[in-house]
Amino acid sequence: MKTVVQKELSVDIKSGRNVRLIFLALLLLIVMFLILDVFLGSVNIKASEVISAIFKNSGSNYETIILKFRLPKAITALVVGVALSLSGLQMQTVFRNPMAGPYVLGISSGASLGVAFVILGFSSNIAPESLNGLGNWILVVASWVGAGAVMLLIMVISSRVKDIMTVLILGIMLSSGISAIVTIMQYFSNETMLKAYVIWTMGSLGNLTSGQLNVLLISVLAGVILSLFSSKMLNALLIGENYAGSIGLNVRFARAVIFICTSILAGSVTAFCGPIGFIGIAVPHIVRIIFKTSDHKILIPGTILMGGAIMLVSDIISQLPGSESVLPVNAVTSLIGIPVVIWVILRKRNYSGSF
Amino acid sequence: MHVLKSITIIALFIISGCRYSNSRTADEISDKVNQITKAERFTLEKKNGWTEIKIINPWQGASGVNQIFYLVKRGSKMPKLPDSSSVIFVPVQKIICTSTTHIAMIEALGEVNSVVGVSGTNLIYSPEVIKNVNKGLVGDIGYDANLNKELILKLSPDLIMIYGIGSESTGYVGKVKELGIKVIMNADYLETDPLSRTEWIKLFGALYCKENLADSIFKTEVEKYIKLKTYIEQNISGRPKVLLGLPFKDTWYVSSGNSFISKLISDAGGDYLWRDTESSVSMPYGIENVYLRGLTADYWLNVGSISSRNEISAVDQRLNDLPCFKNDNLFNNNKRVTSNGGNDYWESGSLYPHLLLKDIATILHPEVFKDHELVYYRKIY
Amino acid sequence: MRKDIKEILSLDSLKIGYFSGKNENVLLPPLNASADSGELIAVIGRNGIGKSTLLRTLTGLQQPLGGEIYYSGKNIREYSRMELAHKVGYISTEIVRINNMSVYDMVALGRFPHTNWIGKIEMTDHEKIMDAIEMTSMKRYCRKFVSELSDGERQKVMIARILAQDTGIMIMDEPTAFLDIAAKYEILHLLHLLSGRNNKTIIFSTHDLQMAISQSDKIWLILDDILIEGAPEDLMIAGAFDHLFDSSTVVFNSDNGTFSFRSQNRGTIYIDGNNSKRYWTKKAINRVGFSVSNEMTSTYIILPSERNSHWQISAKSIVREFKSIYELITCLDKEVMPT
Fold first, then answer.
1. Nearest to A71 by CA among A315, A341, A339, A328
2. Residue closest to C91 by CA, chosen among A237, A246, A250, A164
3. Chain C residues closer than 8 Å to A293 by CB
4. Average pLDDT over residues C203-230
5. Residue in chain C lying closest to A245 (CA)
6. Mutate to test the interface with C, among A12, A225, A247, A296 (most CBs of C within 10 A)
7. Where are the alpha helices (H) located in C67-122, listed in sequence order?
8. 3-state DSSP assignment of residue C76
9. Candidates 1.10.238.10, 3.40.50.1220, 1.25.40.10, 3.40.50.1980; CATH matching B28-221
10. C-alpha A166: how far from chain center
11. Is residue B295 within 8 Å of residue A68, measured between CB atoms?
12. Are the CB atoms for A103 and A259 separated by under 8 Å?
């Protein structure tokens, strides 16, 4: 028996080595994209100037752009990619649904409702653009309050309802209902307000102050740590809540932890950067395909690395290096994410209930 | 000898007279003030028994779209028209306007009481109209697709004047047209030349049978503007660089070089940082680019709708580093505003561009215009 | 080896059912039953009577509507989820479809109650997992993905998982449902081994009466109004299974525990010959509605013998030969009139 066990373990070690190699490759990719994101941007800055901007304290204009615009934006992109992909992974496992994403519980709808109240709600009384001047902390708080309210509602529903599918459907209905309210508010607005709101929905990575970036970093870090603890629970949930219960998982507790983790991750990102779509849905699928496993001990770190890398790429693309215009980051993530999602669906021939 | 001289003189007279009457007819047919200004989006022709108005390409991106109206004086004999459904009887007694520029022009002609409906009563600056609003004489008909058609019917105007951002705007008023109310799309905001916008007062002149007043207002304005522009050209030394606008998050929508404000700045002796660009809409540039070029700006104008330096910092702290910010050269066009948000810059500004010109010139060249008190602009602290 | 026998599970007036809205839907009258360690218990009852509900309630996945369940003397309510998972393992008929999950990973889930916070598989865990995989003969599929297996193989993996969970009690809802005959008996043999050698208590529901009667230590027979428990043979003697089916077309033979169709009696036939082929020939003529007569009949069958390897029907002195029972019966079915 011992020798057989040794042989099995050596197989494990070999596949473990593969996994380690992939992790290393991903880590390298992230570093590379991070560097690229700082080197490339809307303004054409020569590589040598970038380097001197970082290492020498010349106080040149380029240095300001690198240090005050590009570096914070690159870090934001990394953090956003990590947060959204991780919450997407968790949602897909909990709901055992390949189309689930970080916003499936209505987080982005709740956030958009809060923001809509601020931008669109005060239609007659305040000159529309002056809200721009009130600063983005108001939008952050409004977004968080909206997302938080929806989160609480979902938690209450989840604790009362046994079947996770019901929770999913209720979450989607809640989302749609809130979107309808926002649509009504848009209907009664003029162009200026609409424009401001629509631009919020396009998402932006480059608008955070250092204070805001710190808050975002802390929140996402908290979410990541929480998700590491939930890795075992997620593995159990893969076989369904009934079986998970039979092997000892406290399903209600697991749901609560995972929902809180998702709301911290996705809620913070939406509050600071607006709703950014498709990353949360697409990245977990890519990771599952690359690592060929369903074990969250591997999927979670894999998703963290892959999510960061892909978001960095999206940011690089949205800057349209070489041209002065920029693209909204949401458009780019959709363009990357949608083909992935389509490809995933087409690969499987039987998709009912499995992922 | 005398006879030859007389004949020559008479002949010259006749020839010059014909030329004069020719050019006058030419003026009447296309109503374009030559050389300096040309409103491109409408023509006005006086015909026998009616005035023909043609609005050309009244929305962004339109091409080959003409709207023709025939203005017939009330009580006069109905002439034979190519299309009798496009008749408007003038003078207009009741009008609904969706833009405040229309209100300013109507008020300049003394017909402010004919305004019975607007889009957004809170955006109005004119105290007269606000008085009427408070008396309940002016209704708020809403915006775009959401026009309150029942209220429009109730107000039963002779004419509703709208401005459209896109071709769908024609859809909004389809129902209204069906009910027999005339709809004119006003394209003044699409004119990029400051005086072209002012010339639209002639449209209102025709609508209220006050053509002469309208003409004289326009002529006065043109004279003042050109005089001022020439004066500026001759007396300034150097052209300060000007930055405009505010970013929305990551993106800064930058006015193009062929825009209204860019021309004003140029005429006022300034150098708009993007005066070399050409575009029919604002360009979405990355904040990096605008920041980089903005570092060279001496003055910052039209800073969104903010009223204080703190508000700029609140939008994006990095803007504090711009020299124009540090040097306190911030000016915004919201000096004449009501508590509800009505801004006269957008209302009467395009009617009196020479005042805008003077304001901006005073800002950019304070040593030349020491005595002028800013009308539409104010310094931001 | 002396088995350590103690009562490991007992049901006390257990009312099972479910809530629909505010209404209680009680499936059965209060149930009383018990199980000892090392017993292999088959739960039998007609479809829809509540076997699955009972098993789920015993696992703690569903709340009972009344009554108590005691595991080793302790009320199930006093167990935490994790403690219960150490005691009771569960398999249902639910089909689990996951991509990218290897057989090893699935079986490893059984170690959930035993591993640490991150679920690390230690050497002891690994050994238990491999043991479980070997016991279910799934060794060569170890690295394959569960989604690539057939239904039967997947079922075996689920059984391996519950084995790896290493609980004293194993509750299985139709564990042999998707398996072919060979695999069915393989699993049954395994269960027998586990209950006998490893002293595990195994409670499983099944529709295969033959299997249940022949292999289990105890039967829980669930009828509409009562749960009867006892050794299979006790229940047979008591004729308990007769009430399982109230059907005019199916009859249960208490003497050998089989079912047969109550078909029209077309007559009796005498079989001449007494060798190994008699039993199956008799079964065949029963199938087409004839019973075997003890006395000679005018039409009778002669079994193949050393002299003649064919079956023969003798009717009115005409003897016809048939190479197989198939041909024999076809003729019998079509031509012979009831006497």
1. A315
2. A246
3. 100-102, 105
4. 88
5. C61
6. A247
7. 81-87, 103-108
8. helix
9. 3.40.50.1980
10. 24
11. no
12. no
Lowest mean pLDDT among A201-205, C79-83, C156-160: A201-205
Give all chains having 3 or more CB-to-CB distances under 8 Å with chain A: B, C
Question: Do the Cβ atoms of A190 and B120 come within 8 Å?
Answer: yes
Q: Tell me how far apart the terminal alpha carbons of chain C are, to the nearest angstrom.
A: 60
**Distances from the Cα of A289 to the Cα of B124, C41, C234, C238, angstroms:** 60, 43, 56, 59
| pLDDT greater at residue C43 or residue C241 | C43
Q: What percent of chain A has pLDDT over 70?
A: 89
- Strand ordering across the sheet containing B51-56: B42-46, B51-56, B66-73, B87-90
d(CA B169, CA B183): 11
In the CATH hierarchy, which fold is given to the domain comprising B236-379?
Answer: Rossmann fold (3.40.50)
For chains C and A, tell me whether 3 or more CB atom pairs sit within 8 A of each other.
Answer: yes
User: Which among B214, B104, B106, B122 has a CA at the least distance from the CA of B157?
Assistant: B106
Can you give the length of chain C in residues?
A: 339
Residue B112 is given by DSSP the state G
* Angstrom distance (rounded) from CA C36 to CA A17: 47
**Residue A13's pLDDT band (boundaries 50, 70, 90)?**
low
DSSP string, C256-323: TTEEEE-----EEEEEE--STHHHHHHHHHHHTTEEEESS--SEEEE---SS--SEEEEETTEEEEES
Q: What is the model's pTM?
A: 0.80
Concatenated DSSP letters of C231-261: -HHHHHHTTGGGGG---SSEEEETTTTEEEE
List CB contacts (< 8 A) between C165 and chain A: 247
Kindly list the structural domains of chain A, giving each domain's residue range(s) and its CATH number in brackets, ordered by start: 25-347 (1.10.3470.10)
C323-332 burial: b if 16+ Cβ within 10 Å, else e: eebeebbeeb
| Residues of each domain in chain B carrying CATH 3.40.50.1980 | 28-221, 236-379
Cα diameter, chain B: 85
Nearest to A295 by CA among A235, A227, A246: A235
CA dist B325 and B372 (Å) reads 23
* Beta-strand pair C201-205/C169-173: parallel
DSSP A69: I
Residue B262 has pLDDT above 70, yes or no: yes
ipTM entry: 0.80
Place of tokens 């008699």: C278
In DSSP terms, B46 is beta-bridged to: B51
Full set of structural domains in chain C with CATH: 7-246 (3.40.50.300), 267-335 (no CATH)
- B217's CB contacts (< 8 A; 6+ apart) are B108, B109, B201, B351
pLDDT at A1: 47
Task: Render pLDDT for B328-342 as a digit per residue (tens, 0 to 9).
Answer: 999 999 999 998 888
